[in-house]
Amino acid sequence: MQRRDFIASLLAVAPAMPNIVFILMDDMGYGALSSQGNRYVSTPNLDRLATEGMRFTNAYVTPQCTPTRSTLMTGQYTARNKMFHVIPPYQYPYARVREVPHRDNLSRDTFTLPKGLKAAGYQTAAIGKWHLTTGQDGNYNGLNPQASHHYGFDVVAKPSVIQGEFGKGDKAVNRFTDESIDFIRQNQKQPFFLYLAHHSIHNIVAAPEELVKKYRDKGFPEVNLNNATYLAALEHMDTAIGRLLKALDETNLRENTIVIFLTDNGGIHRQLRPSAESTDQLKLFERLFDNAPLREGKGFAYEGGIRVPMLVRWPGTIKPNSTCHTPVHIVDMLPTLLEATAAIASIPKDHSLDGISLMPLFKDKKTAPRPLYWYMPFYDLNWAATPSAIMRDGDYKLIDYFGDFFNAEDGDRYVTSARLELFNLRTDPSEKRNLAAREPKRTARMQKQLRAWIESCGASIPVSNSNFDPKRAFEKISGMPRP
Description:
Elements: H1 3-12, E1 19-25, H2 44-52, E2 54-60, H3 65-74, H4 78-81, E3 90-91, H5 113-119, E4 123-128, E5 155-156, H6 162-167, H7 173-186, E6 192-197, H8 209-217, H9 228-250, E7 257-263, E8 271-274, E9 282-286, H10 303-306, E10 307-313, E11 322-324, E12 328-329, H11 333-340, H12 359-362, E13 372-376, E14 388-393, E15 396-401, E16 405-407, E17 413-415, E18 419-424, H13 440-456, E19 477-478
Helix pairs in contact: 7-9, 8-9
């Protein structure tokens, strides 16, 4: 179908203009909600959202912050938008594989989800974390008010006080919730898009002291896995979201508001550091959350790093207490929400979309089978990450390590060779059995398709680094050339 005919067909059946509340959590793992199996913390408000809407069991993002946010804003995979690296930039110039240059700022000229919604008459707000620019327009903490219109936002949060709110307080969860409620009340007579991007539950984890004491008194530890502060932060977050949902009820906006809850990557299962005793091995630094049954967590190419909780409530469109097992990706959010709001025609002709609309899934219909992709051509030793790419096709998932990897089965020891891993996620969701050697034809076919996709996006396959120095391979420096 031609683009013009596609847009016309969408407009012909376009629904009324619903409000949108998009809640993006930071570093929250697949099993963090009690509706997803959390045995230690009750999350009644998010459980209510799941009961009143749809729970997605195969929802995917990227393994880290910036790439997920760029994918959400652009509707493009990182192989296309070139924001596959966490910013501000850093590099490993002496590693075995040469890192691919990346963008360290989302361009003001880039078409974004809020720009499309503004074109359709929406008021737009970005409350909370930004992490898509490094200069005067904004940084990790937030988008600067003076620059907000360049990215499609009318309203942004007040500047954050890092030490007061992030290190010792509640990471501004209450303040961001208050500002979000104010925005809803002030714009209840017109369609609005609220992008609420919490800093919680990213390290440094923070929560109100009375809640921390509650979990400490229950016997939970002070640090590491399932510590009292971490569990308190989960409960505090759920309470704040309950206040937000109550505001929609009180303003009679519940029935005409799409609420989406998603997280930017998995929880921190293992954070690593180079070993002082060995030049070719990593050692455990910290653990915060067990993403079981999924393997690993934030930063890793395994399911614990990229599969996350996703809840969508849309009264009158989504059947309550429904579950969707179809694999979806955050790259789908832009086309989905622009179709839902009759704003699909706002997409410029030269802006390629990699996602699809999830509207059929919202209505208990099917979407055509398709592969999902990830492009991660960089090093980040916090998560044993080496240049790689991922493809999921049906039940099968391929991880293509381009030139080196850390062998978890050998104490995270560094191996200077390429590696392919193939998993059947239906029979092996914990990714314990690498089938690459047993199914060479499938592995070769998927690798060929994955690499062809990378090149079709205008990206490149990483190659050997002529400056490789085994003694300095783990040396990290700030800064990296822009493409």
